[in-house]
Amino acid sequence: MEDSDWMADRAARIQGRDLDALYSEKTHLVHGRFGAAHWDYKHHIVPPASASVAYRLNTSQRGARGFQEFGHDHLGDGEHILIYDRLDEPTRAMLEENLAYAERGECAVAFASGMAAISAALCTSAASGTHILTHDVLYGCTFSLLRNWLPRFGIEASTADFLHPEEALKQIRPNTTIVYFETPVNPDLTLIDIKAVTRRVKAINAERPEEQQIRVIVDNTFATPYGQRPLTMGADVVVSSLTKNIGGFGTDLGGVVVGPASLERAWLGFRKDFGGVLSPRNAWPILVYGLPTLTIRIRQQQQTATKLARFLHRHPCITAVSYPGLDSFAQKELAHRQLIDYDGHFAPGTLIYFTLREDSAHPGANGQRFIDYLAENSYAITMAVSLGQVRTLIEHPFSMTHSALAADASARSRIDPGGIRLSVGLEKGDDLIHDLSEALEHVFQPQQRA
Ligand SMILES: *Cc1c(COP(=O)(O)O)cnc(C)c1O
Question: Which CATH entry fits the domain spanning 294-449: 3.90.1150.10, 3.40.50.150, 3.30.1330.10, 2.40.110.10?
């Protein structure tokens, strides 16, 4: 049999089966989706990393057709005409196909960073004169984008406490077009009830004409699609930083927007013109290393996180631990309903937020001494921002990732000056406990103990 026939036969055999029914997410994330019209690779086991800024167009008619079709037929089965990397690109398109699958979305568009994806998701659903309603605790750069940049273009934003969705959604205005939040919230790991929000927004939308529909956009960076799929709970759009747990190894920035096919054209157009495109060189490690290992990394990391959270919870010098997997977690019922992995098991996540006992005259001072000690003395724990890597990272949100909120008079009270965020990696749990214990011993000398 001709080699090409053999490959075509195999492809037909594979495609002829109901792959979604036969194989689990864990397997799909390793093998990819094989439906991509973007690349005709046949004998590669690992998808090739492509690198071509521009593409041969053959004839002026074909070139013109490529431009006409850009953003229209991305999901169609006709010939896909590649033109220029910033418009569409095969390695990145394979990643997008797998991310759409992972999030249960119809399409995904990848950006240069999480912030580029968030900018695109917001700007394509807003316009001058419209309003965005968000939860009052947000990743610092998202907060700054809404506070410092979008108002320049006539897009207004205000915040509400989405821990009480009914109350928060009373802040919706006639010109509101976006409801935006993270859950779990960075950094305090409180949860927002996605179904409660989307149910209420759908009721409001039912009374509105098409052009005034409100979109619910959820930042799923903390849970990852492994631990939570907001689109299945009624959200319209999911944004994620690929830099964190999806990339997983801390080597590449990236971001993604996932949602209905009806929005793909706007996202691609925005990316083309604002230019925040994910480089295929950065897409490749996320496609080849990040996504295939996502399920196993998260499962291991959250097992260790549960162990560390219990240790911290029992420790006399720790006043509060927020971790969805603890019995003491305030929103335990919601956590078990919303944070569910592909196999239907509870997925409490890989981050822990906690506070040390503080002297009321110097709030946050013990927390800072604690992470400074770890920074200087710990082998297993690294003081750094970012999260979701194979290494355990610790940081102080008030002065670091969330300093934009801390600097804002109205938001300041929502960020605890003593709060510490721990992103659990793949080290042995006992080693991490060893380093945490030693730092706590150092901060709370015996005479200071209550
Ligand atoms: C890090 C982060 C972002 C931004 O992602 P980048 O890839 O750093 O641009 C957005 N949202 C949350 C919740 C994050 O943790």
Answer: 3.90.1150.10
